[in-house]
Design goal:
Shape: globular
Radius of gyration: 19 Å
Number of domains: 1
Largest sheet: 11 strands, parallel
Strand order of the largest sheet: 3-2-4-5-6-7-8-9-10-1-11
Distance between the termini: 42 Å
CATH architecture: Alpha-Beta Barrel
CATH class: Alpha Beta
Structural class: alpha/beta
Amino acid sequence: MATQKIGASNDLIRFGGNELEKASIKARDISWKNFGKKIRFYAPSFAHYETSHFHSTPTAFPTISITGSSCDLRCKHCGGRVLKTMIPVTTPEELITECTKLRERGALGCLISGGCLPNGSIPFNKFIDAITKVKQDTELTIIVHTGIIDPPTARKLRKSGIDAALIDVIGSDATIHEIYQLDVKVDDYRSSLEALFKAGIPTVPHVLVGLHYGKIKGELQALRIISEFSPSAVIIIALMPTYGTSMQNVTPPTPEDVAEVLVAARLMMPKTPVVLGCMRPKGEHRIRTDTLAVKAGVNAIAFPTEKAIRLAESLGLKTTFSPICCSQIFQDIGRGILSEA
């Protein structure tokens, strides 16, 4: 692959030969300078996780869908299947009841998400009062995963007391139309980020590497947009072809593709925590991705492989584990948790 400078086009920076290794070292040096030689590992309740270092619990930090299993988009890479892994609720009363039960079982918080409406939004408005009550009556950390969002809804979510907002940002109109099958544009994601930023909500955007049929398309543009709005952290995830979807046989992006996006994120946002998130292919692919992420100096990894943990330790990094969502890396850094023994 030919090497090109960041900002040369809307395509992702590509590294040839040993250029990725050199760029990763540069990214790692920047990370260690700004954040210290530390890495945080996360294993929330989204999936079972068990290594010799840590194991997840089923109730510490689950995900709730406020639309049950319903989604109007049926994106090619998901087909609504992700919603089936979440706790389903469809009314504000059910949300309050479920969150109350979670707190009684010892949960630390939850991620509230859901399926999209035809315009790409998630119907949070009718749940605002319920979220407000949950925040008032419990000590749960509440994170919401929004789709396209307008300023009034963002302001209402801010007043509800949520702790953070997550949003997937897509940098290619073609990907939005072909994969999400959604009639919006990249500028609508920029507007959504702006709405969250102006509302004063800590925002943690996600970039999904290889969303365009496993190919790199628009990832750098997504990072550029994100960098305009002082994100609390940035999470990089990767296409994981899912059985039963129209993209189940798509070849996922390579671990090197993922590493390039991680490096680009660090070089563009040197003082923003960069995280390798939970969605990424498993097996040898994940082992390779995770080790490249450690070498690139990421601040956190969700569900890390044993090899990545050992590599971090061999590099002299201070490692810590958490049962909550990896988006909270910005809170953990702010509270000094990453400096604990």
